[in-house]
Each structure stands twice: as structure tokens, then as C-alpha cells.
Amino acid sequence: MSLIEIEQPPQNSKKFPRIFVGVAISMAIASIGLAVGALINLGGPGGSTELGLGQTLTPACDNAVTFLYYTSIDNREDLNITLNEIQMSDISSNCEGKDFIITARDNDGNALPLSRDANGTLWTSVRFHFAPFLGVNGSVDLNGNLTNMFTLVGGNPNAISVQALGGLDSIAALPQSSPGIDDWDLSDPFLYWALSPDQNSVSITFNPFPIEGEDSIGGFLNPRLIKLFTLESTDH
Does residue 5 sit within a domain? Predict the structure, then answer.
């Protein structure tokens, strides 16, 4: 198992000019075969090493996957930080047909709840499928977006949403009925589109239902509790 150990320096309390401030942190991580491919260490209690960026691994299906997560800061009387979104980009077409699994873990290695649904069910991992491009008629729209390119597996789409951040690569001009007017009937998409060799990307957004008796951010994960993320790949 390959590791990326990245710890954050201690953070001082600061005041921010707006109620919510988005924060993004990125690292390059990748999965190897069917096992855990990388651990991103976010620095639990006592972390002191400077944050490192841009580290890469060489997995079975890719050279490097870029991992980016977004947080928001609720600047009220009690400062709250929430994990809102994870993005993975630079995904190779060699990974099409695989499932990816993302888990956040605390300092003791326990899986943390990433989201919760209306029934109170906690989701401690996100599994999603990277669909292969099969060239099925009607599966690609005029903008090159592949239907269900990335889809949630075994989760609640109301609590966790997964969607592609880009479409297919154009390899030929669409037929036109007149100059500037595309006249493509969505058939034979292989003639006009191809899966990007290494620039596929996906967004995972967390929409937890509030915890009864708490405010609207009560169901969100506090990223300060996260020691590391794990990223796995497996057959669908």
C-alpha cells in the first residue's frame, strides 16, 4: 500500500469578512489495483509538518489523480467549518469501468460520516462508478456530455450527489443542416466524440440533512476531525 502523508500546521483563529468562506486544498493521489492506493494525512492533533501539494503515485490504471476538497467557514459566534465537496480530476480513461471509493478517517482510523439522509442514516464512504464510453446512440448530447459518466453506487443521491465536471473530447465536427446549425441526431457518437485520455473529472457534493435540534449545518462533517482520506478502486 502506498501512502501520502501530509499534515497541516497548527492554525490560528482568524476572522473572515463573509459568513461563508470557501477553502480548497489539493493533492495528487491515485489508487493501485484493487487495494487502497493512497492516504492523505490532514493532520490530526499535534500535526506540525508543512502542507505538501502535488505528490503523485503510479497506479495500475493511472499515473496520478488530483484530489481537491472544499470546505466552508461559518463565521458566527461559534466558528464552524464544514466539508462541502470533493473533486477528482486528471482521471485516466484506463480507469473507465472501475468504481472509486472515498473514505475520511479520524486520528484512530475510524471512518467518519460524510453525510446523512433524512432517516438519519450516516454515510461513511462514497462509492461511485466511472462508466465506460460505449458509443450507444442517445448517450451523448450535443455538448459531448456522456449520460451517467459518473454515478453514485449504494448511497443516497439526496445526501450525496455525484456528477461529471467535463464532457467527452470532440474528434470531428457535428453534421450541420446549415452553417452554424448542428443537425446531429445523437446517433453514432463514436464518430464525433471520444473519452479524454487523462482529463476526466468528477464532483462529489455533500448535502446532509440537518440533525434535529441543531442548525442547518449540524449534519456536515467538520474537516478538523479528518486525519486522512483513503481512495480505493475496484471492479464495478
Answer: no
Question: Long-range pairs for 145-152 at CB < 8 Å and ≥24 separation?
Answer: 146/193, 146/195, 149/200, 149/202, 150/202, 152/126, 152/127, 152/128
Distance CA 181, CA 141 (A): 15
Q: Is residue 12 part of a domain?
A: no
Any domain includes 11? no
Say what the pTM is.
Answer: 0.78
What does the alpha-carbon distance between residue 92 and residue 30 come to, in Å, rounded to a whole number? 10
DSSP sequence for the chain: ---B---PPP------SSSEEEEEEEEEE--BTTBEEEEEE---TT--SPP--------SS-S-EEEEEEEEEE-SSS-EEEEEEEEEEEE-GGGTTEEEEEEEE-TTSPBPP-EE-TT--EE-EEEEEE------TTSB-TT-PBTTSEEE-SS-TTTEEEEESS-PEE-SPPPEEETTEE---S--GGGTEE--SS-EEEEEEE-PPPPTTS-TTTTS--GGG--EEEEEEEE-
| Residue 111 within any structural domain of the chain | yes
Domain carrying residue 211:
20-235
pLDDT, one tens digit per residue, over 188-218 is 999 999 999 999 999 999 999 987 777 677 7
Q: How confident is the model at residue 91 (pLDDT cuts 50, 70, 90)?
A: very high
Structural domains in the chain (count): 1
